[in-house]
Amino acid sequence: MSNRIVKGTLLLTIAGYISRFLGMIYVIPFNALVGAQGIALYAYAYIPYTLLISLSTIGIPPAISKMVAKYNTLGQYKTGLRVFRNSLYLMMVTGTIAFLTLFFMADFIAEMIVANKDAEGNSVQDVAKVIKMVSFAVIIIPAMSAVRGFFQGNQTMEPTALSQVIEQIVRIAFVLISAFIIIKIYNGSVVLAVSFATFAAFIGALASCIILWFFWRRKREQL
Prior knowledge:
Structural class: mainly alpha
Helix content: over 70%
Shape: elongated
Largest sheet: none
Oligomer: single chain
Radius of gyration: 19 Å
């Protein structure tokens, strides 16, 4: 068991470093595509997004992991599974509420972030648009975090590690490819390119869910 925990911790650490590294280097080509205006607009979208993700999860995924591990140690496997299911339903509800809040209050939030136009030329309408696009990811991510917590509680770290890396790779690929197509091929606007770039958070989360579903199918009997 101790070797399994060490191996799992190592996998999570490596996955975290890979994700951070990819998150740092993709900004260079993305900045070349959308410029200072696009980077500023992109950052605006993630201010309320990050806050809502934190509020919608409220520390529940780590709690799921600890509680599932505790009940497994006591041999109360059905209780651990019940805790996970109830937490998953809660995360689905809080994710939906967070999405609705972010989507329908996008204009109000944008007005709080910028006044008319910022120094880079982004208007309130531009900021509201990218906030709405990134809000879709909030539907999935809280529930996805609950599933990761359940796997970790069962001392199975591979799903979390692999899904985390795949999520980042797919998200970055979507960001760069969509921005390149819109800017370079169709000569589209920076605002449209950044809108698709923020929507990439949803696409990456979907890819992560597919990986988690694969592991769930594979380990369903064991779990």
